[in-house]
């Protein structure tokens, strides 16, 4: 497809997808929390200038007070899904609500720039820029950045791995070149929460489908084609750890990823096998990887409007992930 054709198709799909999201966020009960406040920031890491929005969800106990007597709030940075081509930072409002209800944590969902206008690696660099900005402005928002965690769904799950690795590279570069901003307090990424994230871009969609005999198709092939042609239009090397963390070197994974992770995969997903393979590999490297496979569901099952019916499997998965996060936060 031409770049113009990709943009037109992406615009159409985004419009349709936003309608389904509206049904979920405004007509499916119980309703999730609304955005508490937003900030617009510049993407400082990307070579392509631009701005991105940060959406904040805060717990009932939230206060901006920087008084030493007031406990700082934990920080979870979230990356939405959509093949890095569609989707919005509001898509994960239900997940953010689960976190703010059960933890004294602020959730910041990043509205990174999307392909095909901004292909790989712009979205990753936008998210790294967001993390650095949050760390620099931690006092303003009363955040404990020594306990930063990332979360993401689908393409956003891949971003969890990629942003963690790219952030490590950026910090090392700044230190090496003596350019670490004096106003930046370096935080620490202590956990990733990944919902059905991709880990191996070298595999074709057909190979991914064939790997799971219990496949439950939920995304039509033309959408996968749109995602792949849009995000990969910069012709990157598919073995890059920022695209395929599942085949990255042991050194990259040891240094670039935190010691504790949560992985929630779908039993009927084309990404199941590569995700579970990556889980075992990380465990073999000494990482602690919580999580499980949600049986009987396909990719993105938790994003469907439920009206008044609710979704028990979704609620259980979110509760498990928050419990695991709280466990990590209590240890560090």
Describe the structure.
The protein is of the alpha/beta class and 332 residues long. It has a single domain (3-331), classed as Rossmann fold (3-Layer(aba) Sandwich). The chain is 40% helix and 18% strand. The protein has helices at 3-27, 93-102, 122-136, 138-141, 155-176, 205-210, 221-231, 250-256, 272-284, 312-331; strands spanning 37-42, 51-57, 73-79, 105-111, 143-153, 189-195, 260-266, 288-294. An 8-stranded mixed sheet has the order 1-2-4-3-5-6-7-8, with helices on both faces.
Q: Write down the Rg.
A: 19 Å
CATH fold-level assignment:
Rossmann fold
Helix/strand order, N-terminal first = HEEEHEHHEHEHHHEHEH
The CATH level-2 architecture is identified as 3-Layer(aba) Sandwich
Structural class, from secondary structure content?
A: alpha/beta
Q: Total number of β-strand segments?
A: 8
What fraction strand? 15-25%
Count up the domains.
1
InterPro entries: AB_hydrolase_3, AB_hydrolase_fold, GDXG_lipolytic_enzyme
Pfam families: Abhydrolase_3
GO molecular function: hydrolase activity
Keywords: Hydrolase
Give the topology.
Blueprint: H1 3-27, E1 37-42, E2 51-57, E3 73-79, H2 93-102, E4 105-111, H3 122-136, H4 138-141, E5 143-153, H5 155-176, E6 189-195, H6 205-210, H7 221-231, H8 250-256, E7 260-266, H9 272-284, E8 288-294, H10 312-331
Parallel strand pairs: 3-4, 3-5, 5-6, 6-7, 7-8
Antiparallel strand pairs: 1-2, 2-4
Keywords: Hydrolase
Domain Alpha/beta hydrolase fold-3: 76-301
GO molecular function, one term: hydrolase activity
